[in-house]
Every structure is written in C-alpha cells, then in structure tokens.
Amino acid sequence: MIHVKHPAPGPAGEPAPVLLDGFHALKHALRFGAEVRAAVAADRRAALDLAAELAPDLRDRLADLLVEGDPAALGGPAGRAHPTGVAALAVPDPRPLPPDPRPAPIVLLDNPRHLGNIGAVIRLAAGCGAAGVLTTGTVDPWHPGVVRASAGLHWALPVARRDPDDLPAGPLYALDPEGEDLRGVGIADDAVLAFGSERHGLSPEVRGRADRLLALPMRPMVSSYNLATSVAMTLYHWLAGHPDKPSGAVPSR
Questions:
Q1: Per-residue model confidence as pLDDT tens digits over 51-93
Q2: Residue 108 three-state SS
Q3: Are 165 and 205 in contact (CB under 8 A)?
Q4: φ and ψ at 34, to 5 degrees?
C-alpha cells in the first residue's frame, strides 16, 4: 500500500485544502472545476470500477489522480471511514455571484449553526439550479463539515459568507411563520430567499429588510420543518413555476 503524504502548501494567502469525504464528493468537485491536490482510495481498482459505473466521464481523470492508501491519511473524521473508501483534498474556490439579471434565486441562510444543515442546503440548491448560497453569522460555509455534507457540490455554485447589510440586489423574501402562504406567491428569478437559524429564526436585521414575509404550509401543532426541508420546499415552489429549469442556470467551469 502506498504511503500518502499531504500535498505541499499552496501560495501564500491561498486557503487550506478541504476534505472531500467519499467518491461522490470527489466526483462532484471534479465535475465543477475543483483543483484537487490529492486523492486516495483504500482499493484503487474498486474505486475505478465505481467510476466506470457511476461517472464514466471522470474515469480517466480519476485513474491519473487516485493513489492507493489509507484515506484517513488525508485527515478524515476519526473512527469513520467512508463506505466508498475514497478521500481527497481540494482547494476552496468561492466564485462570484452571477451578474444581474440573475437567472435563479439566491438562498440566504441567516446565522445558521448546524454544519450538516448548511451542507444539505448547498447540495439541494446546486441540484435545483439556485444562483448561490450565502450565509450570515460566524460559521464558515466552507468549513470541512459543511463540504462533507454538501457531497462536494460547493464548486457547483457560489457559496460565501456575507454581512446582512451587504446582500445582493433583488426582492428579499423571508420565510417566517407570520408571512403569507407561499403557495399563493410567485417567486421572482432574481429573489433572495432568506431562512432563519434552526433555533432563533430570522435576525431582526434580515427580517426588517424583507420585501415580503412568506410562510410554508404546515399542519397545526407541528412546530417547524428542518432547515434544509424548508429550503427544498421553497425552491421547489419556484421550480414548479419554471418547467424549463434547472437548465444550467449556474454553468460549470
């Protein structure tokens, strides 16, 4: 088995590489232009067979990248090896938001706290063709735990942290229990869709800037939805009015 060494540091000021935990994270990152510095498979032949089955477009690139070794050497979570036995390191690369007029809404997570929830939102936003995911607060949206939960889809769309007073242009729709029923509202393509934190909801700053408050339909006595579920319901409502999407609203590089 090959001994795996960490890659040499990049240029001064370049962000440290983040872990891609599992074959699917590596697959998505490569498809959307990530710079992969190292890639390891516990069983290289098995990993390439998986690529031939699930990602034949990447099979040759993976054959050049993958070395056989212990994926834990790249700093994966202690005590938990990914079932695919694959791990990689890639350089974070936050891209700019698309120029106006935007082809799809931006998702704004207002002071989120749960790394897994943030990653799940990025994953579904990429699948729905959203124009980007922004966060406020102290949690880094490129934290390795968030990248792990996104299955490597950080490179599929803009992901960045913003201050509440530095939000992009466009109507701001904030999800709030006191808002009007989402089902009766059309969501503009250039909207910013704001979702509050898992425990405290929207901050006063973001709620106060909202052009409209929207509420998700919910059975009485049910207190809330999971954050990622709320984002999924809202983006699906937008998609339902646009049968031509997602259609490459955020092109890969």
A1: 999 999 999 999 999 999 999 888 876 557 789 999 999 999 9
A2: strand
A3: yes
A4: -65, 145
